[in-house]
Amino acid sequence: MLQNFIVVEKQNIIEEIKKTKSEGYRFAAMTCDHVGDELELTYHFDLNYEMKNIRVVVNMNESIESISSIYGPAFLIENEFQDLYGVVFNGLIIDYKGNLYLSKDAPKAPMLKGEK
Amino acid sequence: MARTTIPFGPQHPVLPEPIQLKLVLDDDIVVEAIPSIGYVHRGLEKLAEIKDLHQTVYIVERVCGICSFMHSMAYVRGIEELMGMQIPDRAEYLRVIWAEIGRIQSHLLWLGLIADAFGFESLFMETWKDREKILDLMEMTTGNRVIISANKIGGTTKDMTEEHFTSILNTMNFIEDKLKGVDKVFLNDYTVKKRLVGVGVLTKSDAEDLCCVGPTARASGIKYDLRKTGYSAYKYLDFEPLVDSQGDCYARTVVRVNEIHQSIDLIRQAISKIPKGDIAVPFKGVVTGDVISRLEQPRGEVIYYIKANGTKNLSRLKIRTPTFANIPSILKMAPGSQLADIPILILTVDPCISCTER
User: Fold this and answer.
1) CA atoms of B193 and B211, how far apart (whole Å)
2) Residue numbers in B near A51 (CB within 8 A)
3) With pLDDT > 90 as the criterion, what percentage of chain A qualifies?
4) C-alpha to C-alpha distance for A70 and A64, rounded to whole angstroms
């Protein structure tokens, strides 16, 4: 039901995000969801009130390139998902290393399904 | 002189909620600011996966006390879209009236906070005194002054009577009259302008790069207001996004002052056009699929990503609040500013940490 929705391979995400930026889209939000043994990362963009949604699927133990060097404000939400889902983003412009929300002694990745 | 790093917050007299900026200073000029949040994170998105679809209305109302109504409005609109529900026009108008009442109380609250921050106590008290009249309207129409619980999936939980409309219009007249005096001070007073003009400038280009939303973006010349998409009853109302081009603290104040007048106008239009009829349709069936629901809160665009799998619970609820989108702008505005201007600069983004940390 998401409008203007595409799924891309992990290795193509940076290229797709660069293309999205060159088309004039604003980075609006990002969603992470835990599905089985995978994490679905969905990037949401806006241009003139129309949304574009790009999804990439990563395995639980995989890292992914940060888009913060393309869309600077994405650093905050990527850090959030590092904390709450344990996904590692390479090349974050500001990296809180899992401590944006969580203290050092807090449970790891509390948003994963099955975690209380 | 050696550079110094000092913490600003998380507890600070101008901050109603905890956020910290690590400020790197060269003398009293800020050269870098790094935000630190996470002091009040509540895990409400996780809670929404445990509670059922209807209980989640009450959860999202508690994301924030200031824009509580619009959080539930974004959520129920998303569920209604997933289910293909057409809610009654009267409910759409009622939602707009409560949303705009909420915007007025939020902006009046902010005006009081900024007045307090630059030490203008009588202005702070005047603004918050008037805000009480708006909270009275919320109490009169729903029984509650802050979290009004007026939304449900399929419409609204409460209706308004003709007497309510009369009282609301009388209060709008009262607020408009009171604002004539308050506006003058906020927009023309010498000392106020000394604290706001030219401080914390965010150019249009910077605001675009930083993906800013709401009054923060509009004060930098970005004509973006989701109400123009015509959701709910906004499609029946006549208005244009209010913008300024200076991008400084003063411009952000001007935009919010003008938006109060705009909200008063929208409420008058809505009351003049609201049709009679039902206020809700029954909720039937199961919800599947995912959807984005967006609307314009007082601080800007809020985004709800809702994913349902046919059970009574959501499989994912993601909330991107406007303050979360606007925090990066502080990192751009702070460098080059005097340390004494940082409290004002942060406040003009109207940060809501309760929203940000959900």
Assistant:
1) 27
2) 292
3) 72
4) 14
Domain with residue B281: its CATH number is: 1.10.645.10
Which of B210, B292, B303 faces A73 most closely, judged by CB atoms? Answer: B210
CATH of domain A5-90: 3.30.460.80
Q: Do residues A88 and A64 make contact, with C-beta atoms less than 8 angstroms apart? A: yes
Cβ atoms of A53 and A44 within 8 Å: the answer is yes
Q: How far apart are CA B154 and CA B83, in angstroms?
A: 10
CA separation, residue A78 to residues A83, B209, B329 (Å): 9, 17, 17
Pick the residue of A2, A31, A45, A75 with the most B CBs within 10 A to test the interface with B by mutation. A31
Q: What residues of chain B lie within 8 A of the CB of A33, using their CB?
A: 307, 315-316
For chains A and B, what is the number of CB pairs under 8 angstroms? 69
Question: Is B146 inside a domain boundary?
Answer: yes
Contact B53, B309 (CB under 8 A): no
Q: pLDDT for B98-112, tens place per residue? A: 999 999 999 999 999
- Domain borders along chain A are 5-90
H helices within B210-283, ranges in order?
A: 214-218, 249-273
Tokens of A76: 């905050």
Task: State the nearest Cα–Cα gap between B127 and chain A, in angstroms.
Answer: 33
Set of chain A residues whose Cβ sits within 8 Å of the Cβ of B320: 28-30, 44, 77
B81 CB neighbours in chain A (<8 A) are 1
Q: How confident is the model at residue B315 (pLDDT cuts 50, 70, 90)?
A: very high
Chain A residues in contact with B318 by the CB 8 A cut-off are 29, 31-32
H or E element at residue A5: strand A5-7
SS (H, E, C) A7-28: ECCHHHHHHHHHHHHHCCCEEE
Best to test chain A binding among B32, B316, B354, B355 (most A CBs inside 10 Å): B316
Task: Give residue B238's domain range.
Answer: 40-325
Banded model confidence at residue A116, pLDDT cuts 50, 70, 90: low
Q: How many domains does chain B have?
A: 1
pTM for the model: 0.94
Instruction: Choose among B228, B289, B315: nearest Cβ to A1.
Output: B289
CA atoms of A5 and A42, how far apart (whole Å): 9
ipTM of the complex: 0.95
